Amino acid sequence: MNATYDTPRRLILNLEMDEVLSSVAETIKNFAVIYLVDISEVPDFNTMYELYDPSTVMFFFRNKHIMIDLGTGNNNKINWALKDKQEFIDIVETVYRGARKGRGLVIAPKDYSTKYRY
Amino acid sequence: MEEDIDGDIEDIEALNYDDLDNVSKLQKSQRFTDIMQKVEAALQNGSDISNHGMVLEDDPEYQLIVDCNVLSVDIENEIVIIHNFIRDKYRLKFPELESLVHHPIDYARVVKKIGNEMDLTLVDLEGLLPSAIIMVVSVTASTTSGKPLPEDVLQKTIDACDRALALDAAKKKVLDFVESRMSYIAPNLSAIVGSAVAAKLMGTAGGLSALAKMPACNVQLLGAKKKNLAGFSTATSQFRVGYLEQTEIFQSTPPPLRMRACRLLAAKSTLAARVDSTRGDPSGTAGRSFREEIHKKIEKWQEPPPAKQPKPLPVPDSEPKKKRGGRRLRKMKERYAVTDMRKLANRMLFGVPEESSLGDGLGEGYGMLGQAGSGKLRVSVGQSKLAAKVAKRFKEKSYGSSGATSGLTSSLAFTPVQVYISKHEFIGANLML
């Protein structure tokens, strides 16, 4: 289970992540569902999850937030546009496997320490 | 033995006889003339449908048709004999012609047209042969090594050609007759392949029951042309199809499906022939239903494959990995199994400090290996199951690669010694476990 939080104001940049999410949705529908949340309409969680970036992807499993070690320093979310579909699917699968085992923190298959960009 | 040789010589001489009548007897025979008369009479009378009620075998027409089938086969053989005769005579004049024109009737026609003419530009072969072959024939004729025939030989050759053509015409008549009666004789077969092809099939097989006894693969090949004309490519030759090639069903299938259609046709038409030979279905409905089946099958083959649906990924870890078992896997796993030495090294005796590779508690610990009270005097590295294989490979690598080893060296000299390690050799040595 995961959710994305998007601001509509910077649509052009966000569409990259939206594109990836929509193309992946059918493929991973057996174990993950994608929710798109507009943070200007639903601002209730902005402070709680620190949602300030153009696009943010967070993962939840049975109402528990799952952290991912991406190498970026911020384990709570992916706050850049991940362009590669297969990478994204890999991350979702890793999160699923770890979460089912009961882990609260999973290690992403790929390291994004020097590579993440807005 | 000698009699056989004499017999053979006689046969060869028979072929050289000047008189065609000694070789080809069919046309003069009584049987031939009888049947031809009946056929002509029947052709003029038209088909008589009132005979349906009678049992087939009693019907005189049926008997006539059976005779016609046998006769057509005989006529074919006769034509071959006459063709040989013509060929032998005409060899003196134009030897290359026989390899250019294979079909006996075409050959006879060409011989008749050319006659004794040496210059082929004066001879018009239009309509007798395809234009490509006419060209080849003209070119070869200009360089031929033949000489004009003497008058009487020429006359005999022309006579033989006439005979061949007459036989061919007779055969055509017989086939036409059979074809017109086809829907009466074999309604199911003609419902599938059409009466012309059915008549040809029956004629070549030598009768309806003969056709019914053939397996379908033979039926497929009835009437198949084998030889390829000189110089023409075999790339376009349709392989392994006979008279069935002329059926409407075959012609209307797209080329990539033709082989499969041919096999299907052959199978169903054999079934229909069997039904007909036992008169199981005089109305022909079985044949029509076969035809429908064939059409449906060919339609189905031409359907496009179902569109590929993008499959969603399965839930991770939901399908347990298919683990294999068995001897092979066990042997494979042995290579990575924990050895006895390592097991001993992993354990420790209570109250007894273990020895280590660097001494004093530094380095790798040896656990129970080499300890006095461990109950084992020595640890034998006796895992011969694995070590034997490894040793053999090692041996082959180091000793087998040099080709200079003479055949007299025995492998016994290189057997690795069974290692038993004493405590002293141990300290400081690498634990190769």
* Assembly form of the protein: heterodimer
- Percent in strands of chain B: under 5%
Largest sheet of chain B: 2 strands, antiparallel
Number of domains of chain A: 1
Poorly predicted runs of chain A are: 4-13
Query: What portion of residues of chain B is helical?
Result: 40-55%
| Number of beta-strand segments of chain A | 5
Fold-level CATH name of chain A: Glutaredoxin
Index terms:
heterodimer, A: 118 residues, alpha/beta, Glutaredoxin, 3 helices, 31% helix, B: Helix Hairpins, Serum Albumin, Chain A, Domain 1, 3 domains, two-stranded antiparallel ribbon, 19 helices, 1% strand, disordered C terminus
Q: What order do the helices and strands come in, and which of them pair?
A:
The complex is a heterodimer of chains A (118) and B (433).
Chain A lengths: L1 E5 L4 H15 L8 E5 L7 H4 L5 E7 L2 E6 L15 H17 L3 E3 L11
Parallel strand pairs in A: 1-2, 4-5
Antiparallel strand pairs in A: 1-3, 3-4
Chain B lengths: L1 H14 L14 H16 L14 H31 L6 H4 L3 H11 L16 H12 L8 H30 L1 H4 L1 H7 L1 H11 L2 H6 L2 H6 L26 H5 L5 H20 L7 H18 L24 H8 L5 H7 L32 E2 L3 H17 L19 E2 L1 H4 L7
Antiparallel strand pairs in B: 1-2
Helix pairs in contact in B: 2-3, 2-7, 3-5, 3-7, 3-10, 5-7, 7-10, 9-10, 9-14, 9-15, 14-15
